[in-house]
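In response to reviewer comment 3 from the previous cycle, which asked for concrete evidence that the modeling workflow produces usable outputs, we include below a single protein chain processed end to end. The sequence was submitted unchanged, and the resulting structure tokens are shown without manual editing.
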Amino acid sequence: MKLHIAFVLAFLLSSCGSAKLVNGSKDANPGFSVKDIIKTHQAAEPQFETLAARVNVDYEDEKSSQNITVSLRMEKNKAIWIKASILGITLSKVMITPDRVQYYERIGGTYFDGDFALISDWLGTEIDFEKAQNILLGQSIFKLESQGYKKSVENNQYKLAPKQELDLFTHFLALNPDFFKIASQGIDQETKGRKLRMYYPDYQKVDDQVLPKKVVIKASENDAITTLEIDFRSVDLNIPIRFPFTMPDGLTEIQLD
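The workflow returned the following structure tokens.
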């Protein structure tokens, strides 16, 4: 049972205040510049202090599939907390801060307490707190600078790709024209046979903020494919929340290869 992978992917799954709701258009404008696309996307980042959500996660690989419901809590730019439980019994917890990742799951009796190396190893690409947060908020996981990107309009979406790819991986992202949120983004590591894709088929408005309603993550390594669907069933912003986390005794530490 790969609950720990689903859990990490699920989590894999700026300043606070009132953000201006970005109003785009029904159709993508081919004349829109790279600079304007990036600037508008950055302006579309949700602004809040806290977020609490109930999230349904469907996980499937070539050997197994499972469905879990988790509680997700965030304090913007400070903490991401996830708990999976059944009948009031906690199965797993994740606590992520900008410089630390803590995780445990009771079924396999394992834990991790360290940096982002474990998550990066599972996802097949370098992940930090900002990237993890951006995955949940429908924002780019890449640092966007207008002089470094070229754009095109494909399938009524603004597609951005680097003018010059890095040696270790290639990447892209596509933005929808209405709210300039991520429609899809991906990373390829050809030397390791790895591909990571993130799709955002639906968004929702919560207190005048545009947030993902559904996220689909597909991670492949050679012929092995893992699919994760994340459905946000309820979302509340700017409510009092807590982040209780105590590592149980008697667990075995996860060792990286």
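The radius of gyration is 18 Å. We consider this sufficient to address the reviewer's concern, and the full set will be provided in the supplementary archive.
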